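Box 3.1. Reading complex inputs
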Amino acid sequence: MDRRTFLKASAGIGALASTGGLSAPALAQGAAARTLRFVPQANLANFDPIWGTQYVVRNASVLVWDTLYGVDDKLEPQRQMVESEEVSADGLTWTFKLREGLRFHDGERVLAKDCVASLARWCVRDGMGQMIRAIQEELVAVDDRSFRWRLKSPYPKMLLALGKNNTPMAFIMPERLARTDPFQQITEFVGSGPMRFARNEWVPGARSVFTKFDQYQPRREPASWLAGGKRMLVDRIEWHIMPDPATASGALQNGEVDWWETPLTDLIPTLRRNRNIAVDIADPLGNIGSFRFNHLHPPFSDVRARRAVQMALSQEDYMRAVVGDDNNMWRLLPSFFTPETPLYTEAGGEPLKGPRNIDAAKRLLAEAGYSGQPITVLVAQDQAPLKAMGEVTNALLRSLGMNVDFVATDWGTVGQRRSMKNPPGQGGWHIFHTWHAGADCVNPAAYLALRANGEQAWFGWPSSAEVEAARDRWFAATTLDQEKAAVADMNRAAMQHVTYIPNGFYLGYQAWRRNVTGVVKAPIPFFWGVAKS
Amino acid sequence: MLAYIIRRILATIPVMVVVALFVFSLLYIAPGDPAAVIAGDQATPADVERIRASLGLDRPFLVRFGAWAWDIVRGDLGTSIFTNLPVSLMIKQRIEPTLSLMIITLLLAVGIAVPMGVVAAWKAGSWIDRAVMVFAVFGFSVPVFVVGYLLAYVFALELDWLPVQGYTAFSEGFGPWFENLILPAIALGGVYIALIARITRATMLEVLQQDYIRTARAKGANQGSILFLHALKNAAVPIVTVVGIGVALLIGGAVVTESVFAIPGLGRLTVDAILRRDYPVIQGVILLFSFVYVLVNLVVDLLYTLFDPRIRY
Amino acid sequence: MASATVLAPAAAPPEPVRAAPALPDIMPPVKARKGFWGFLLRYPTIGIGGALLLVMLVIAVFAPLLWTADPTALAPALRTREPSARFWFGTDMLGRDVYSRVMYGARVSLLVGFSVALLSSAIGLLIGLVSGFIRWADSIIMRIMDGMMSIPPILLAIALMALTRGSVRNVIISITIAEIPRVSRLVRGVVLSLREQPYVDAAVAAGTRTPVIMWRHILPNTLAPLTVQATYICASAMIIEAILSFIGAGTPPIIPSWGNIMAEGRALWQVKPYIVFFPAVFLSVTVLAVNLLGDGLRDALDPRMAKRI
């Protein structure tokens, strides 16, 4: 048998053997200084970043897998695994050449055919990948270190697609793993990144462990988000899941963990007072809260009803409910896009600015034909921001004189029910809440929630030709000014159509002990460059 | 005796079948779709359908139940929908913390509650009796998580005597293992202590009125030996019964305690699985709990023969 | 020669009869008291428990009149304020008045407690009677009840809540289903032991039909243990409701209950402990009251205890 099959077999047997044991014993005292204990935002229940697209899976995956490109802190894609790329003059042929010395965790070299298989799997599940696949002529390995992607029409955003941080990211896996159906999980976790996933120490729902991969070759440039050299300064990273925020707070104060990804805003003053703990913003790109309508059924199939809610909705109420008293952590958002980014625009955002007008809203609602039917609001009780938003919505709708059918369930049920297009009285819905990471709302590239192509759109199924036309203009744009104009048009059209209502822009904190250095503000908690003394 | 044990073990089978059927039916009609959660925000309904099909969720009820039951009989508890790990492995990883917690809680509770009940019965009618009983009832009345938070705040954060959360495996030393479990055990034990103390007092009261106690007293036996040697032994049967029934309560309380103290045990595993609709895990764990409960009751029945020689099987 | 009959020496005066030695202290003499107040004094736990419960009932019924505001009125700008003259118990994370929520919360918690106690007793009684009397049904029913009892009640309630949406009605139904097996077992036990009594035999021999036997002979004897059990179920149901809310599977937050006020405030309890403290105190006192009531009832209704008088 050839070497690859032998390694695969022994890895398989090793995995089988190691799954028989209980958690491994603790390390000696000295090694504790090289172990970083982190409390993540949510449970890491599965670990296939293409199959399961939750944020926490992506955050863990960036440790284990590398990407061809990576965006830096300006969200510009930079080369990562790629040494050089070439685009033909007509923009139809892309040729990529890999760096020297890239290896997988099983010791094998990273070859072009691994990249081809990984990208093929990624394209099926990712929005931009699907767009590329639709115009794909051929994706093939030219030799061991280069591969070629031929398209039927130009796709200027190719590098952004390959290097973006929005989930699912275009991770490079060994070919045999990448051949797994994109709707099934991979069974081994052989990666190309700076840390290995210690599968035999994984207790799903409680703990995940990553150990340093010594053969990783970081780039020479300084690290900047997903770009540059990913130098690991700790040997071992442990993720401890703590469902109770009060417990996590106590653990951080007591030194039982080193870094907490999502401390509650209300607990920050206590953490700040502790001399051993540092607190800062987690992700400068923040989050955009979403109040989402069902456009298929009355009353919100009538744009006047949606506008009525839009003119009555108070973003301040929602933000205080979600974030708390700290005014640094939220701002009003008369826009669908992320503030402090190049394409940010407030065009058309007037309805969300200024004092709220309940009486005019009630009149508009009556005009739209609302006559007292119950409004079904889906509220997930197990996600704190959504739970808070749901209660504010209940108060808002009741102040408009509407009857509210408050459906309190869990996020899984909301996920199922929101996909149903039946009328609300028969298992459908009128309103649900969610939020979008600011990183996903910087531009229309990965912004699924802003699509307005009717039945194929995201849940709610808004339909507006104007919004779609503006979006197409952005994709075809070649200069920054053209992009800005297209985005402004899109914002205006979406505001008028009330695709959904952004109920505010909010940030979160992160907290860590002072003996940990190198923590940066970013949409993903980056572990390279983080040291512990 | 052996025949009795075998008969009892065989009798558990129909019970387990009922449990299996009940749990399976429950999950079948539950709304909420794990496939939708897995598919994530970007998926189309077609994607979700594909995931459902790959998980085998689109087959009819009897087929699914039959397949699962057949696997159970062969010892295969199935594979988790979300983590893709075998359910038996997930249970094995998390059984030690829960077992440790329950054993320590049991020992603590029995160790505190039985003497409490004995003293209350001995001084029946006096203020000691009333005080002990009200104290016991408090254990019943304050919710477990409130007690847990208070204990963690006072003993871990303020006094820094004990860790706030977490679990250390027994293999890493008795001290750390015990330290992590004291506070959770006290929080969890409150309810148990109340229950056991009350039943101890009630049965001891009855027993203390018996003629043989009066005889022992007349003989001049000292109070201690009367209470513990003669009386308690005869009162043991109902007490042990309640201890057995209380195990189900403990499991329920463990769910909350494990959340508050971040102990990676079975309670949290089950609640997470229920809220996510990870069917194989839910089914496997509940089946396990039922089996343990039935086993505990069998042990309790066997213990009767120790305490009451009149009981023979 | 010796003297002849000698008169017995003058006998000492007969000794007075001494009282019997004091009884050992395990049998103190009991003074029987009469009347309602006498009853309460004999069973103080009924008095205390009943009084506390009455206070809670008054709070629940007259909540709107107790200087409360709308418990669902949000004011996010006034969130997490400490207790003060304006907000007696402070405000929670959405700016709602905790005092009003606790007063109105009494309604839900008491409703859940009483409803579960009543429903599970009624249904458990029915099942227990049927099971105790009809032999062929007995083994099937008891297998099912055993199965359900072997699933920890909290997990059963969570699973049942996962079937549906959060609401007071669903919480009541879930907890009731989890408590029925215990009640039915209790009733069945009583029925089985009563069935052997001579007077039941006599009734059967006299040709009385089964339903009449159940109604006239069996049922009255089950009421005493059933009532006691019902009070414990009431207390347990209130705590289970709190735990369900803690997990996130309880009553929706737009309807305040002591359980979900605590659940919402739990993350902040280190910095704003009053959000958890006040509902915890009210819940604990109520559960304590119900438990004391149950203890007292058990002592009062136990025929063996009555012998001591």
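In summary: Confidence is low (pLDDT under 50) at residues 1-29 of chain A.
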